[in-house]
């Protein structure tokens, strides 16, 4: 019985997070929630890319600082929260490998970002989603009747009701 509960919760989590599930969204609120989740994921990807780019920048600064120095000179490196003493000859290649690894991750995240942007654009066109600007709320509501909605109208990404 416990395994059934685990499987059921996994299915539920998969259905709510994926806008491409077999069920079509039922109403505008569900569509708006899916769209907001997609935008949140896009923002997380942007944040992660920015964070990793800052780390690459720090790695570059370290590499530029220690490269011209004597390779037998002592230096200190933080590994897992522990400061260890090494030589520049040992540390420099490791820092360069870390930087290259970060750059590869950034490249993959950029690919994911582009896919997510396309997915959001398709979702917007499929459901005729328009972004409501805070200063346009009065202008948009003025000439329309309540029952003549043309699509889903979503507020700014950071707005909370």
The H/E string reads HHEEHEHE
- Please tally the helical runs, counting DSSP H or I stretches of 4 or more residues: 4
Count every beta strand, where a strand is a DSSP E run of 2 or more residues: 4
| Strand composition percent | 5-15%
Rg on CA atoms, Å:
24 Å
Task: Please bin the fraction of helical residues.
Answer: 55-70%
Low-confidence stretches: 1-19
Secondary structure class reads mainly alpha
Biggest sheet statistics: 2 strands, antiparallel
What would you call the shape?
rod-shaped
For the biggest β-sheet, the strand order reads 1-2
Distance between the amino and carboxyl termini: 39 Å
Q: What's the pLDDT, averaged over the residues?
A: 81
Key features?
161 residues, mainly alpha, two-stranded antiparallel ribbon, two-stranded parallel sheet, 4 helices, rod-shaped, disordered N terminus, unfolded protein binding, chaperone, coiled coil
Could you please describe the fold and organization of this structure?
With 161 residues, the chain is mostly helical. It has a domain at 28-70 and 105-136 and 149-154. 63% of the residues lie in helices and 10% in strands. It is built from 4 helices and 4 strands. The strands form 2 sheets. Strands 1-2 form a two-stranded antiparallel sheet. Strands 3-4 form a two-stranded parallel ribbon. A hairpin with a 2-residue loop joins strand 1 and strand 2 (82-87). The longest helix is centred in the last third of the chain and has 40 residues, at 88-127. The two termini are 39 Å apart.
């Amino acid at each position: 019985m416990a395994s059934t509960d685990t499987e059921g919760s996994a299915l539920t989590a998969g259905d709510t997070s994926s806008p491409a599930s077999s069920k079509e969204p039922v109403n505008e609120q569900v569509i708006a929630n899916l769209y907001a989740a997609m935008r949140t994921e896009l923002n997380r990807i942007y944040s992660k890319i920015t964070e990793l780019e800052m780390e690459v920048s720090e790695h570059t600064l370290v590499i530029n600082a220690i490269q011209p120095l004597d390779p037998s000179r002592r230096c200190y490196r933080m590994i897992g929260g522990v400061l260890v003493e090494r030589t520049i000859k040992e540390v420099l290649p490791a820092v360069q490998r870390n930087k290259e690894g970060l750059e590869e991750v950034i490249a993959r995240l950029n690919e994911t970002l582009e896919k997510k942007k396309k997915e959001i654009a398709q979702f917007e066109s499929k459901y005729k989603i328009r972004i409501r600007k805070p200063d346009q709320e009065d202008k948009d509501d003025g000439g329309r009747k309540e029952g003549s909605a043309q699509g889903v109208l979503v507020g700014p990404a950071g707005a909370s009701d």
